[in-house]
Amino acid sequence: MPSVESLPYLLKELKLPGIKSYWQEKAKIAESLHWSYGEFLADILDMELTGREQRRLQEIMRQSKLPSTKTLSTLDLTANPSINPAQIKHFSQDKSWLSQAENLILLGPSGIGKTHIASAIGHGLIEQGARVFFSSATMLIQTLQQAKNELKLKNTLDRLARFDLLILDDIGYVKKSEQETSVLFELINERYETGSILITANQAFGDWEHIFPDSIMAVAAIDRLVHHATIIQMTGESYRATYAMNKNKKKEDSKT
Ligand code: ADP
Ligand code: MG
Q1: Is the C-beta atom of 239 inside 6 A of ligand 1?
Q2: SS3 letters for 7-69?
Q3: Which of 130, 143, 149, 243 has a beta carbon 3.0–4.6 Å from 125's, enabling a disulfide?
């Protein structure tokens, strides 16, 4: 019969850090409440599992590179009449669109809330168990381009394929110098009908030509993206400008 002293070692070997930290505390509770051995075991195992799920979620959140404060709870869903709150909630709370490799495209002028909405959807989906990766389109394209130069593009695309959702923020900002190698097309082609992409852009499709090496590739890319996609066109004022204006107005009002 091993001694109680061997518990720290046993729990470390078995990789049960939650039980290792809390079993003594729990044992006292178990004694005072007269739990059976079975109840005690169930309780500490449940605690271990909860801790493990939390750590897994934290790790997935860290890997996602999502802006941490742009969540559904900090998003005012009534601020912009051109978005439908129920639709945004659906995309963030029901991950079935990811298993169907559907895409989501958010179009609208600068400052209207595209990045915030995209990020909030990402956060919501992670809570639903999905794996999400957020990046500015420019940065991801640079990474892919570098990988291509080093003959590692396939590797990098495979790594990205592990994410259920790729968020490419501000695709319109991709510069001429970054489009020559067509890696963006390769990415879109690779994920077509296999993995979801969420794209934000401040230009309509007609102006996407400069993102790709030529118009044929632009058409082919847009074709693949929109084949199974929901397109949300946002209109109206910049949230930033409106918010700043309202704040000033409040200040003015309070003066009078
Ligand atoms: P875009 O990506 O369309 O340029 P952002 O998502 O960056 O716009 O929004 C601009 C700023 O306004 C950000 O700080 C964002 O958090 C905030 N914002 C935009 N829309 C909302 C909203 N509906 N509720 C709360 N904050 C918002
Ligand atoms: Mg943005």
Answers
A1: yes
A2: HHHHHHHCCCHHHHHHHHHHHHHHHHCCCCHHHHHHHHHHHHHHHHHHHHHHHHHHHHCCCCC
A3: 130
Contacts of 145 (CB under 8 A, 6+ apart): 178, 181, 183
Residue pLDDT, tens place only, 100-150: 999 999 999 999 999 999 999 999 999 999 999 999 999 999 999 999 999
Tokens of 215: 């118009």
Is 249 within 8 Å of 217 (Cβ atoms)? no
Find the 76 Cα to ligand 1 centroid distance in Å: 9
CA of 237 to the centre of ligand 2 (A): 14
Query: Whose CA is closest to atom 21 on ligand 1?
Result: 113
